[in-house]
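W.,

You were right to be curious about this one. When I first looked at the sequence I had no strong expectations either way, so I just let the prediction run and decided to look at it fresh. Below is the sequence, 206 residues in total, followed by the output.
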Amino acid sequence: MFAANTAGIYCVKTRNCPSASITSRHRKSASSASADDSVWYFGYGANMDPSVLRKRNITPLEIANARAPRLRLCFNHRGAYGNVIPSNGIIRKEEESEPSCAHGVLLRLSNADMKRMGTFEGGYDIKQEEVITYGGKTVRAAVFVTKPSLKLQQSLPPMSQYLRKLQSGARFLELDQEYVAWLEAHPSIDADIRGKEYYDTPLQRW
């Protein structure tokens, strides 16, 4: 089900936002939702946290929990920020037991808000990927993927402050329980002790 975001950034369930009225007039199919001046965007990182969207002055028009079956989350963006790679890609042997796909939030954004979102996501390309809502709808959505020049050689523990945004967003959205548990247990480090490996990208070496 797609829920209209009529009561703020962002309300997923009526019990979280008593003023929201989620009815049939607030739902759109994947095929019709992109017919107007808007785009679907799949957020897997800090943008799952509604406080981040508030600070960025971005107001989703519709929302739904979703997963990207062909992608999985890792932390190999310069500085160990989030990125998604093909679900069959293995960076470290230890990752073989990690979630096989990325979970996150599917947002319908105005074109203006999507453009604004891009100004905060430095070092990423935008690609179109298929995601599946928890209700079973398949949607083509914009996804931020790390530019090759800013990709680390391996996934590293992210900054604690950054990881907390992913954890709080996943809890708020009530994503898949196993996925939330994985995020909660994921190792992290303090920002000021990141070593040179956190900046070892092709661009840095060039």
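Here's what jumped out at me. Residues 12-34 have pLDDT under 50 and may be disordered. And, maybe more interesting for your project: The helical segments are 30-33, 50-55, 111-120, 160-173, 177-185, 202-205.

Coffee later to discuss?

I.
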